[in-house]
């Protein structure tokens, strides 16, 4: 799974997320800006850097590393990069700290003895996602991080739970961002499935998806037709799963519905308990 891009999106959307993992976050955490920087001579790439506000004087710079693969020289590289960047920008910052996020302790490099001073200090923070507790009890943004570690067998149910929480707790447009992140995580987990198949597995209505929103916002006629066809097929599959096989007459009626009515059906079908409910609903649209 390409977790780097997922965590980059998480930190980009919610820079304060890093500080939710720390027991002693800075008082001005809300003012921090997430960025990536390069250090020349030698050339280092630092993916996750949290920069303090420039209008408040010298502050603490936080370096973040998300490490899901065992790297036996991670600490050598991370501390060298951090120290060099701090050295070249020492007039801007009063201190530096590092946060390393692991899925579990088993991913940490084996030989940590040379770095015991830093690792046992309050300057370096190690976070093990599998030790944060029940994902259902975690703050939503942290739960998204933990979702990347969930096994495939439990992932669909967990993702659907997080989608429900998102709809209940978060307003648009942030909810759309979170839904997109959850979908992306699941697409990476189930690489053998198409994005549409993953969205169907999660029970996401088509109008919640990125492709649908982009086409609707751009107002392309061809795009609307494509979305209507895809949405009609997706709704038919959902109805079959809930109610059983549909008649050809029902399939034809659904396929001929205009896009706004299909949107209504995607929500109404959640209340259907029988094919008779569907038939009544379809007849009401004709009259």
Question: What's the total count of β strands?
Answer: 5
Q: What portion of residues belong to β-strands?
A: 5-15%
Label the structural class. alpha/beta
H-E order: HHEEEHEHEHHHHHHHHH
Q: How far is the N terminus from the C terminus?
A: 50 Å
What does this structure look like?
With about 290 residues, the chain is an alpha/beta fold. It folds into two domains: about 130 residues, Trna Endonuclease, Chain: A, domain 1 (3-Layer(aba) Sandwich); about 80 residues, no CATH class. The chain has 13 helices and five strands. Strand 2 and strand 3 form a beta hairpin. Helix 1 runs antiparallel to helix 7. The longest helix has 23 residues. The model has no long low-confidence stretch (mean pLDDT about 85).
């Amino acid at each position: 799974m390409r977790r780097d891009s997922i965590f980059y999106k998480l930190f980009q959307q919610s820079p304060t997320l890093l500080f939710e993992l720390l027991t002693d976050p800075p008082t001005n955490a809300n003012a921090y800006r997430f960025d990536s920087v390069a250090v020349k001579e030698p050339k280092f790439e630092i993916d996750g850097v949290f920069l303090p506000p420039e209008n408040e004087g010298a502050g603490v710079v936080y370096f973040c590393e998300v490490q899901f693969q065992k790297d036996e020289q991670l600490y050598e590289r991370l501390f060298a990069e951090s120290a060099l960047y701090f050295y070249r920008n020492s007039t801007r910052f009063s201190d530096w700290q590092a946060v390393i996020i692991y899925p579990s302790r088993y991913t940490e490099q084996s030989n940590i003895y040379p770095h015991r001073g830093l690792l046992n200090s309050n300057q370096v923070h190690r976070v093990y996602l599998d030790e944060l507790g029940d994902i259902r009890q975690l703050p939503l943004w942290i739960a998204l991080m933990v979702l990347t570690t969930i096994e495939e067998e439990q992932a669909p149910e967990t993702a659907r739970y997080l989608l429900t929480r998102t709809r209940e707790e978060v307003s648009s447009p942030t909810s759309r961002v979170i839904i997109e992140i959850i979908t992306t995580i699941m697409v990476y987990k189930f690489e053998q499935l198409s994005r549409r198949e993953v969205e169907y597995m999660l029970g996401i209505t088509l109008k919640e998806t990125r492709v649908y929103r982009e086409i609707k916002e751009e107002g392309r006629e061809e795009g609307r037709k494509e979305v209507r066809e895809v949405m009609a097929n997706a709704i038919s599959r959902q109805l079959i799963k809930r109610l059983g096989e549909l008649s050809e007459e029902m399939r034809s009626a659904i396929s001929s519905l205009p896009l706004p009515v299909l949107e209504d059906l995607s929500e109404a079908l959640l209340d259907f308990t029988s094919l008779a409910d569907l038939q009544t609903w379809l007849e009401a649209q004709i009259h």
